Amino acid sequence: MTSMLFVGVISFPIFYFVKEWLLKQKKVINEERRRVIKEIRMKQQEEYDEMLRREREKSSS
Is the keyword Transmembrane assigned to this protein (predicted)? Predict the structure, then answer.
């Protein structure tokens, strides 16, 4: 019984810190994903704006 208690006391902090570390990694990954998606959207918007500008230049000339 004492050995089980000892294992529980030792393993609980390890599991807790591993869980916290994994949650932090997940948060970092999600932030990185959001940043990349934002960059892609900005690039697509720039390309679309450029295309519209070219169309306007064509139609005006």
Answer: yes
